């Protein structure tokens, strides 16, 4: 029996509740399967275009410039689907077209749709969970990226990324708390949201606002109750450690206070013995050890050819953390810890010369 998706007398589209549920869960493959049996309408075309675009961008992130030429060819049909069905949901259609245009490096058209979307935000945007709120978070991230390309006002860029982070965090948190929704797809990387999280503290730091950058990074690291943030955890830990290494010394270090702990109490893992760094060295070491543990736990050990890409990415993530850890511990002459870390990394990086070379240097230095 075909799925029915029809227009109500009020002009709004009444879709299958199951499809709307899948949209909230970002489960695009289920939507594509269900639409195969749906009666053709403008809204079905829109849903088909949305699901195909989002599924495509999961495989080829729009922030990766290597995919621009491929996207210009692959997304022609999807663009036509969205244009033929996008009028049924003006705001969402504009958001999706903006993402499509950015993936194809059509930045002027992207900016036009970003502005149209921002000027037509629906009234129910604050109802949670709400698919439109995540799209708006992505639009704010796109706006920040486009403003950066044009060297616009830094405060406007920061505001765009800040709005993106707040909206996405609210969306993901709401979906995870809703019992009848699956959150299996929430940890799939969203390149726009991830970039907004990364750029926000770094822009504050580039504006000599180190204190705000540190506060933002700390809130990210401590916000462990949101599953989607776990996919960014390694990158954020690495960036925060780099910021502390480059820009912070004992003289300008901002210690973690008791009030910080109380404010973040609801977002943190509970523990009877919670370690709180007392100075910048302790915080850097804690970050790098957390990063190392994370990379080791998520290391790809399968040597089948189809896992080569994943294995290489896991090696690169581990090496990035190991390099920072080696720089930091070398200053403290803790070469035996570097040797232990290199030895652990060799479990999945033994084919890489640099890991062996660093391991040898650390053994020589530790005597």
Walkthrough of the structure:
There is one protein chain. This protein is mainly α and 367 residues long. It has a domain at 299-367. It has 18 helices and two strands. Strands 1-2 form a two-stranded antiparallel ribbon. A hairpin with a 5-residue loop joins strand 1 and strand 2. Helix 5 (76-85) runs antiparallel to helix 6 (90-103) and helix 13 (233-247) packs antiparallel against helix 15. It is globular. Residues 1-13 and 265-270 have low confidence and may be disordered. One of its GO terms (biological process) is phosphatidylinositol phosphate biosynthetic process. This is Tetratricopeptide repeat protein 7 N-terminal domain-containing protein. InterPro entries: Endocytosis_PI4K-reg_protein, TTC7_N. Pfam families: TTC7_N.
List the helices and strands and how they pair.
Blueprint lengths: L5 E2 L5 E2 L2 H9 L2 H8 L6 H18 L8 H7 L1 H10 L4 H14 L3 H12 L12 H19 L4 H24 L13 H16 L3 H13 L4 H4 L2 H15 L10 H6 L16 H18 L10 H24 L3 H15 L3 H14 L1
Helix pairs in contact: 2-3, 3-5, 3-6, 5-6, 6-7, 6-8, 7-8, 8-9, 8-10, 9-10, 10-11, 10-13, 11-13, 13-15, 13-16, 15-16, 16-17, 17-18
């Amino acid at each position: 029996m075909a799925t029915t998706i029809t227009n109500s007398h009020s002009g709004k589209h009444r879709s299958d509740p199951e499809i709307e549920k899948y949209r909230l869960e970002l489960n695009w493959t289920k939507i594509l399967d269900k639409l195969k049996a749906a009666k053709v309408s403008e809204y079905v075309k829109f849903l088909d275009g949305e699901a195909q675009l989002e599924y495509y961008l999961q495989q080829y992130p729009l922030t990766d410039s290597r995919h621009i030429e491929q996207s210009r060819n692959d997304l022609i049909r999807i663009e036509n689907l969205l244009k033929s069905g996008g009028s049924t949901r003006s705001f969402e259609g504009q958001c999706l077209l903006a993402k499509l245009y950015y993936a194809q490096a059509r930045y002027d058209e992207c900016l036009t749709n970003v502005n149209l979307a921002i000027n037509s935000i629906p009234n129910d945007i604050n109802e949670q969970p709400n698919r439109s709120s995540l799209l708006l978070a992505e639009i704010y991230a796109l706006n920040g990226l486009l403003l950066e390309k044009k060297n616009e006002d830094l405060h406007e860029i920061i505001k765009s990324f800040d709005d993106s982070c707040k909206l996405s965090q609210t969306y993901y948190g709401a979906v995870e708390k809703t019992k009848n929704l699956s959150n299996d797809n929430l940890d799939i990387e969203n390149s726009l949201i991830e970039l907004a999280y990364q750029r926000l503290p770094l822009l504050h730091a580039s504006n000599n606002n180190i204190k705000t950058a540190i506060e933002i990074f700390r809130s990210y690291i401590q916000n462990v109750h949101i599953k989607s943030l776990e996919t960014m955890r390694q990158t954020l830990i690495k960036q925060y450690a780099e910021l502390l290494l480059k820009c912070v010394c004992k003289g300008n270090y901002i210690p973690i206070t008791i009030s910080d702990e109380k404010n973040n109490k609801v977002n943190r893992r509970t523990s009877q013995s919670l370690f709180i760094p007392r100075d910048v060295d302790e915080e850097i070491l804690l970050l790098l050890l957390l990063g190392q543990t994370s990379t080791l736990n998520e290391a790809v050990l399968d040597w089948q050819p189809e896992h080569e890409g994943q294995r290489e990415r896991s090696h690169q993530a581990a090496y990035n953390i190991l390099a920072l850890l080696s720089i930091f511990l070398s200053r403290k002459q803790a070469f035996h810890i570097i040797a232990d870390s290199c030895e652990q990394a060799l479990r999945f990086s033994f084919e890489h010369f640099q890991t062996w070379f660093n391991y040898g240097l650390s053994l020589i230095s530790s005597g």
